[in-house]
Write a structure and sequence with these properties.
The chain has about 500 residues and is of the alpha+beta class. Among the domains are: about 250-305 and about 325-355, Ubiquitin-like (UB roll); about 370-490, Beta Barrel (L,D-transpeptidase catalytic domain-like), CATH 2.40.440. Helices cover about 35% and strands about 25% of the residues. The chain contains 13 helices and 30 strands. The strands form eleven sheets. The protein has a six-stranded mixed β-sheet, with helices on one face. Strands 2-1-6 form a three-stranded mixed β-sheet, with no helix packed on it. A three-stranded mixed β-sheet has the order 4-3-10, with helices on one face. A hairpin with a 5-residue loop joins strand 3 and strand 4 (about 105-110). Helix 10 (about 285-300) packs across helix 11 (about 330-340). It is rod-shaped and about 195 Å long. About 20% of the residues are buried.
């Protein structure tokens, strides 16, 4: 507290001393000092004014420091200088085109006659920078973005683009879709190939835009200018399709024809498959059936020549008739396709339109009717045992009614009783003959009784033969009728 009072007192003492000195010096000294001070102030003001004016004049045709236009600094530069810089950059403009396979090409501004178009935007910016307000504006933000317009010759541009190596058809590799291929053992998905073919119209537009925007580099890949495969491995559909194909072609089916087998190979399955409108696969009946027909021709014995050992011990050659194995082609084809579509591997049998008794030898296996025209005799064997040995009367050859021979026929039917009706060429009835047993085997020719006939065998057939049928004693024909089945072979020689 004592120190604070001492300080105040010293201050008062100094003020009193100062006042005393001023009184002693008088008024002359005060006036002189004032003039000096005013002189100094006036000089400073003149200098400041001169500096202000000088800078205002300087920036009348120059951009303020820190002026940035389109990301480039032009502070202190005249408008015309900036225009010349832009013009020079136009003349030196180069567009680098990045292509696939690390290839690049360039388009020179000169080649397309690129020129700077003065849109007076630089002048407008300068006008906004009032030079007399530099003390204020010099410290403001001066970052501008303007559209720098250029012009170029359309014909020259298109010519330059057309001469690019990447635009030549000879240098383009078309893209390839992902696909399914068979390697011989299975179907697999082959990846797509990108290729180097460009969408020419799009490429021209991309390059044109790049020039318009004065870009110095453009990537045709990034701009999506290349043609793309329509089908990609990653789509998933191909993998599913390959799986379906592998399943369909993995089916292993063997067709057993009795005396031989045919295996459906993978190549067959591939050739039989067709793709439906809905994307599914199936086996085409028109492709499968010809193969079945080929198999039929190989294994059918129906009507084919065969050797037969007679009751008398000799062997005769049978060259006609309708007995034997015959594949029902339509039914067999349908059954095979059904098994294939179901993917059911295994062994199947064909559907037979006609059957023999066995696949061995001449297809005859112990049950048959044997008729000898020369001997006028008939035998009926069942399971290797002769049940009937009887004389008969066959057709009269001298009247054109000879019984066809040299073949083996299937028994077509059985009827008891039955009325035989003979007709004339004009369709009128020639005769009606009731019989007890009727067993046709070759058209209208069959085995039957004829009770009005008192004797059989010998040479009766040459003078009083039938119209072609096998007239048989009643008891014997009854035995045959009671023990024979339809489709039993009837041999006539």
């Amino acid at each position: 507290m004592k120190d604070k009072k001492s300080s105040k007192q010293r201050l008062k003492d100094l003020k009193k001393a100062d006042q005393r000195i001023k009184r002693e010096r008088g008024g002359k000294s005060s006036k002189k000092t004032g003039r000096v001070l005013w002189g100094i102030t006036g000089g400073i003001t003149v200098c400041l004014l001169a500096g202000y004016v000088s800078l205002a004049v300087y920036y009348q045709n120059r951009f303020y420091p820190g002026t940035v236009i389109n990301d480039k600094s032009y502070g202190g530069k005249k408008v015309e200088d900036v225009k010349n810089i832009i013009k020079k950059s136009s003349e030196d403009y180069v567009l680098t085109i990045k292509e696939k396979d690390d290839k690049t090409e360039i388009i020179h501004g000169e080649s397309i006659k690129l020129q700077y178009k003065d849109g007076k935007e630089l002048n407008k910016i300068k006008e906004k920078q009032n030079s007399w307000l530099w003390p204020i504006q010099i410290f403001k933000d001066k970052d501008y973005t303007i559209s720098v317009e250029h012009s170029y010759d359309e014909a020259s541009f298109h010519q330059a683009v057309s001469q690019l190596a990447c635009m030549q058809d000879a240098n383009m590799t078309l893209p390839q879709d992902a696909k399914i291929e068979d390697d011989g053992t299975a179907y697999q998905v082959i990846s797509e190939v990108e290729g180097t073919a460009l969408d020419k119209e799009k490429t021209i537009e991309v390059l044109k835009k790049a020039v318009d925007e004065r870009k110095t580099e453009i990537s045709l890949t990034e701009e999506d200018c290349y043609l793309k495969p329509a089908v990609l491995q990653s789509d998933g559909g191909l993998a599913e399709e390959a799986e379906r194909l592998n399943k369909l072609t993995a089916t292993q089916i063997t067709v057993n024809f009795g005396n031989g087998k045919e295996t459906v190979t993978r190549d067959m399955l591939k050739s039989w498959m067709v793709k439906n409108d809905d994307g599914t696969y199936s086996f085409d009946v028109n492709l499968v059936k010809p193969v079945v027909i080929g198999w039929s021709e190989k294994y059918n014995t129906y009507g084919k020549p065969r050797d037969f050992k007679t009751t008398g011990g000799g062997t005769v050659r049978l060259t006609t008739g309708d007995y034997g194995w015959r594949v029902w082609q339509d039914k067999t084809t349908d059954a095979l396709i059904a098994a294939l579509n179901a993917g059911q591997s295994g062994e199947i049998e064909p559907t037979w339109l006609y059957k023999g008794q066995t696949h061995e030898g001449n297809d005859i296996n112990g049950t048959y009717v044997e008729i000898s025209i020369d001997q006028q005799r008939m035998w009926f064997y069942k399971n290797g045992t002769c049940l009937v040995d009887t004389p008969v009367v066959t057709g009269n050859p001298n009247k054109g009614h000879g019984t066809p021979k040299g073949g083996v026929w299937r028994l077509k039917d059985k009827a008891s009783p039955f009325t035989l009706v003979g007709k004339k060429p004009d369709g009128s009835i020639e005769y009606e003959e009731p019989v007890n047993y009727w067993m046709p085997f070759n058209g209208g020719i069959g085995i039957h009784d004829l009770t009005k006939r008192s004797s059989f065998g010998g040479e009766i057939y040459l003078t009083n033969g039938s119209h072609g049928c096998i007239n048989t004693p009643l008891d014997n024909v009854r035995t045959i009728y009671e023990n024979i089945d339809v489709n039993t072979p009837v041999i006539v020689y």
